[in-house]
TrEMBL record:
Keywords: Cytoplasm, Lipid biosynthesis, Lipid metabolism, NAD, NADP, Nucleotide-binding, Oxidoreductase, Phospholipid biosynthesis, Phospholipid metabolism. It catalyses: sn-glycerol 3-phosphate + NAD(+) = dihydroxyacetone phosphate + NADH + H(+); sn-glycerol 3-phosphate + NADP(+) = dihydroxyacetone phosphate + NADPH + H(+). It comes from Aquamicrobium zhengzhouense. This is Glycerol-3-phosphate dehydrogenase [NAD(P)+]. Residues 183-318 form the Glycerol-3-phosphate dehydrogenase NAD-dependent C-terminal domain. InterPro entries: 6-PGluconate_DH-like_C_sf, 6PGD_dom2, G3P_DH_NAD-dep, G3P_DH_NAD-dep_C, G3P_DH_NAD-dep_N, NAD(P)-bd_dom_sf. PROSITE patterns: NAD_G3PDH (PS00957).
Length: 338
C-alpha cells in the first residue's frame, strides 16, 4: 500500500527499537518525535543524530526530534508507537492516559506477556485506554538492520481491518514493508513466545549440543507456540507468518538476537548480569504457567522456565525432553501438531 499523507508520529521509548522505528516513520515522510526518559539519549538524538547507548556506531537521519516531555511528544500525534519493554508497558500506558489525542491509534511494538497477570499487551492497553484504537507491530526485524535501512517486512495487526490497513500504509516505506492483519492476538502471541524459544535455541547452541538439536528445539518449540496460540484463538496462518515462524527463523539462529545471546550465555554457564534486554526471560515463567493452567503440552517452554528459575540444568532439561514418551509427530490435536 502506498504511503499516506505526512502525519505526526510519537514514539515512546528511545531504545534500539524505538529509535529504529522512529527512523522508519521519518523515512515514510512523517514528522516524528521520540519520547525518551534519559536526558543523555535525548541530547544525543537531537544534537548529534546518534543513540550511542542503544545503536552505537549508527549515524541516524537528520530530522528526528526527541524530548523528555511526554505531553510534548504526544501533542497533536496522529499515531503513537509504544516501544518500551513489555513489563513496563502498563506503567507507561498509565502515564499517557489523559495525554492521548482523541482517536489517535496506539501501536504496541513490544514483544511479551505481562508477567504478573498473564495479560497480552493489547489487553492491558484496552483496560487502561478503553477509547484508544489498539494495534500491534511485530515480525522479524532487528533494530540495527532497520536503522541501516535494510529491507524488512513486518505485520501490523488491529481487529479493525481498515485501521490495520491504514497503519500499514502509514508506516511502510521503500525499505520497510508492513503487511496488515486483523489477528491481533496471533501477532502478539507469535512475538512474545518466539523470545522464549530463542532463549531455548541459544541455550542449546551455548551448551554445544549441536545444530541438529537446535533445529529440533526450534521445530518442536514452534509446535508449542502454535498450541498456546490456538488456546488464545490465534489464527494458525498468522503463526506461520512473519510474527511467528518468520521471527523464530530470525532470532533462533542469530547472535544478533538478544534472546538468543542470552540463551547462549545460559548454555555456556556465563554470568547473565549486564546482558541486554531479553524479553523471553520475563515471559518464560508466565508462558509456562499459562500452558500448565490450560493443560497445554509445552515441555520446551516449561524447560526454559525451569532452567531460568534454577530448578533444572540444561543437560537435565534436555535429557527429560529426550525421555518423553514416544508419539506420533502429528495428529488431530490443534492443527494436527502434538
Ligand atoms: N531491538 C530490536 O531489534 C527489536 C525489539 N523489539 C521489542 O521492542 C521492545 C523494546 O526493545 P528495545 O527498544 O530493543 O529495548 P532497549 O533495551 O534497546 O530500550 C528500551 C527503552 O525503553 C526505555 N524504558 C525502559 N523502561 C522504561 C520505563 N519504565 N519507562 C519508560 N521508558 C522505559 C529505556 O529507557 P532507559 O534508557 O531510560 O532505560 C529504553 O529507551 C521489546 O519488547 C523488544 O522485544 C521488537 C522488534 C525488534
Ligand atoms: O524481536 C526481535 C527481532 O524481530 C529482536 O530480537 P531480540 O529481542 O532477541 O534481540
Amino acid at each position: 500500500m502506498s504511503q499516506q499523507r505526512r502525519a505526526r508520529i510519537a514514539v515512546l521509548g528511545g531504545g534500539a527499537w524505538g529509535t529504529a522505528l522512529a527512523l522508519t516513520a521519518l523515512r515514510a515522510g512523517h514528522a516524528t518525535t521520540i519520547w525518551a526518559r534519559d536526558p543523555a539519549t535525548v541530547e544525543a538524538l537531537n544534537l548529534r543524530q546518534e543513540n550511542p547507548r542503544y545503536l552505537p556506531g549508527i549515524r541516524l537521519d537528520k530530522g528526528l526530534v526527541s524530548t523528555e516531555n511526554l505531553a510534548e511528544a504526544l501533542a497533536g500525534a496522529d499515531c503513537i508507537l509504544a516501544v518500551i519493554p513489555a513489563q513496563t508497558m502498563r506503567d507507561v500506558l498509565q502515564e499517557i492516559s489523559g495525554l492521548l489525542p482523541v482517536g489517535a491509534p496506539l501501536v504496541l511494538c513490544a514483544k511479551g506477556i505481562e508477567r504478573s497477570t498473564g495479560r497480552l499487551l493489547s489487553e492491558i492497553a484496552r483496560e487502561i485506554l478503553p477509547e484508544t484504537p489498539i494495534a500491534a507491530l511485530s515480525g522479524p526485524s532487528f533494530a540495527t538492520d532497520v536503522a541501516r535501512g535494510l529491507p524488512t517486512a513486518v505485520t501490523v495487526a488491529a481487529q479493525d481491518p481498515a485501521l490495520a490497513a491504514r497503519l500499514a500504509g502509514l508506516l511502510s516505506s521503500p525499505s520497510f514493508r508492513c503487511y496488515s492483519s486483523t489477528d491481533l492476538t496471533g501477532v502478539e502471541i507469535g512475538g512474545a513466545l518466539k523470545n522464549v524459544l530463542a532463549i531455548a535455541a541459544g541455550a542449546v547452541a551455548g551448551a554445544g549440543l549441536g545444530a541438529s538439536a537446535q533445529a529440533a528445539m526450534v521445530t518442536r518449540g514452534f509446535v508449542e507456540l502454535r498450541r498456546v496460540g490456538a488456546k488464545f484463538g490465534a489464527d494458525p496462518e498468522t503463526l506461520m507468518g512473519l510474527s511467528g515462524l518468520g521471527d523464530l527463523i530470525l532470532t533462533c539462529g542469530s547472535d544478533q538476537s538478544r534472546n538468543f545471546a542470552y540463551g547462549v550465555a545460559l548454555g555456556r554457564g556465563d554470568d547473565l548480569s549486564g546482558l541486554k534486554l531479553a524479553e523471553g526471560a520475563a515471559t518464560a515463567g508466565i508462558a509456562a504457567r499459562i500452558a500448565r493452567e490450560n493443560e497445554i503440552e509445552a515441555p520446551i517452554i516449561e524447560a526454559v522456565d525451569a532452567i531460568l528459575a534454577g530448578r533444572s540444568t540444561i543437560r537435565e532439561a534436555v535429557a527429560a525432553l529426550m525421555a518423553r514418551p514416544l508419539k506420533s509427530e502429528t495428529d488431530e490435536d490443534m492443527g494436527r501438531a502434538t
